[in-house]
């Protein structure tokens, strides 16, 4: 596609429910990143995929968070048993590589009530 | 820990004023990108600087990469309300992106 596409753009969920956030990177981009941005906070690294290499999951805040990237393209970030502190904007970005231009999606706004 | 420190963290100015935002690191980096993020949107790329001493201009925005490639600056001339947003410097590093601490700019009409 022309840019990084994320869905849903907005999601309100009840505490304890599971949510899935989707990211469609730019075609051909081997690097894909998930970050989250809480109100008034900086960007927090979650997970990084690069090609067929094992992803860097070091930023996932708990075992309720998981992510996968199928076929080296679309990625899904899953949050199980959501908590209120999970409320944030979840940003996906892709690039050809770490030293290349990074393109961000518009983010998925998650609100846990 | 590789950090990118930005200053100032917050800036509120009147339309027409000039401003400079700084991005500093203790380590050398091969390239750096500046982004602007507006409320409700993801960061949008403004420019990539690659060469030490490089200066790039984007309309009223001037970006400079330090000679030692440890720092960069963004200068805005005659700021306008449309410049309001969060300015981020970002660089790539092993396995992740390194984000600057961010500068929140508010330009009052």
CATH architecture of chain B: Sandwich
Q: Which word captures the global form of chain A?
A: globular
With helices defined by DSSP (H or I, 4 residues minimum), what is the helix count of chain A?
A: 0
Highest CATH level, the class of chain B: Mainly Beta
Residue ranges of chain A: pLDDT <50 for 5 or more in a row? none
CATH topology of chain A: Immunoglobulin-like
Structural class of chain A: mainly beta
**Multimeric state:** heterodimer
Fraction in helix of chain B: under 10%
CATH superfamily of chain B: Immunoglobulins
Query: Helices and strands of chain B: which structural class?
Result: mainly beta
Helical stretch tally of chain B: 0
As a percent range, the share of helical residues of chain A equals under 10%
Using CB atoms under 8 Å apart, which protein chain pair has the greatest interface? A-B, 27 and 22 residues
CATH architecture descriptor name of chain A: Sandwich
CATH topology of chain B, by name, is Immunoglobulin-like
Rg for CA atoms of chain B: 13 Å
Number of strands of chain B: 11
Our measurement of the CA-to-CA distance between the termini of chain B, rounded to an integer number of angstroms, reads 39 Å
For the largest beta-sheet of chain B, the strand count, sense and barrel status come to: 6 strands, mixed
Q: Strand count, sense and closure of the main sheet of chain A?
A: 6 strands, mixed
Give a structural overview.
Chain A is 0% helix and 47% strand. Chain A has 113 residues and is mostly beta strands. Chain A has one domain (5-106): Immunoglobulin-like (Sandwich), CATH 2.60.40. In chain A, the strands form 2 sheets. In chain A, strands 2, 4, 5, 8, 9 and 10 form a 6-stranded mixed beta sheet that branches. Chain A has a 4-stranded antiparallel beta sheet with strand order 1-3-7-6, with no helix packed on it. The model of chain A has no long low-confidence stretch (mean pLDDT 90). Chain B has a single domain, classed as Immunoglobulin-like. Chain B has no helices and 11 strands. The chains are: A mainly beta (113), B mainly beta (109). At the A-B interface, β5, β8 and β9 of A face β5, β9 and β10 of B.
